[in-house]
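Entry 14. Two folds queued back to back today. First construct below, sequence then C-alpha cells.
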Amino acid sequence: MTPRFAVLGLVVRDLAASLAFYRRLGLVFPVDAASQPHVEAVLPGGAVLALDTEDTVRSFHPGWRPPADTGRASLAFRCDGPAEVDSLYAELVAAGYHGELKPWDAVWGQRYATVHDPDGNGVDLFAPLPG
C-alpha cells in the first residue's frame, strides 16, 4: 500500500475569519461551518482543506501551543489568468488582509502575488504568463 496525500490541515485562531478568507478564494464549506470545531472543504482533485480551532486541537493534545511565529504553512491558488491574480489580490487587500507581495511577473513565467490568511499563513495567487 502506498500512502496518498489527502488532507491539508490548518489550526486557526478565529474560525469565522478563516472561513471568510477561504470562501473569498472560492472554497465551499458547510453553511453552519462557523459553529463547528472542525470543518472541511473538498479541493479540486479530491484533497481536503481542514480547519480546526485551537480549542479543538487542545481537546486531544492538551500540551499543544500555537507556533511563536506565524506563517508556517503556505497554500497556492491557480488563477485563470494574470488579470485575475491582480484583481483577487486587490480584493483581498481591500478587505483588510495583509498583502505580503504585490503581483509581479516571476522569472519562471507566472504572474504571482502573496497575501496572508488571518493566521499569517502565506497564500500565493498565480497564473501562467502569456507566451
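Second construct, same run, same settings:
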Amino acid sequence: MSTDRTRPAGRHDQNGPRSVPPQRSRRQQPHRPQRPHQWFAERLLAVLSGQRPVHWMLGHTIGEAYDQLAELAPSTPLGASRGSRPVLRHCRGAQPATGVVEAFASIAAGDRIRAMAFRLEQGPDQRWRCAAVELGGERLTAGAPGPR
C-alpha cells in the first residue's frame, strides 16, 4: 500500500492535482425563471399554431383577449409552414406602468417570420393575464397590396 497521501490508493501515475480551474457546467448555473412575457409568448404560440386548444388560455386571459384568441385560433395563423414547426425566435417586453407588460415576439416557421404583440396585466392576486393579442408579419408578394 502506498504511503503517499496526495493520490488515491492504487493510483500510480505521476500527475498531481490540476492547476486549471474547472469550468462551470450548465447544470451548476443557477436556474433563471422565465419572465411572464416569455412564458405567455410560448403559450400563445401553442394556441395560435394549433398545438393547444383555445380554452387552454381561459384562466390566463382577461377582457377581450380570449375573444381575440377564439377568433384567431381556428385559422391557426402561426401554424406549420412546409412541415416545419413554428419556433419562438425572440421575445422582448417593456413595463410602461406597474403591473403592465407590453411585449412583442418574432416567430419563425420555415421561411416565414411572423410578429406577435400582446399586453399582460397583473391582477390583485399577483397573477399575470393576457389582456390583448395582435398578429402581424404577413408575407408580401409582388403586385399584392401591403398589410392593412
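Quick look at the second one. DSSP finds two helices and four strands in the chain. The first helix runs from residue 36 to 48.
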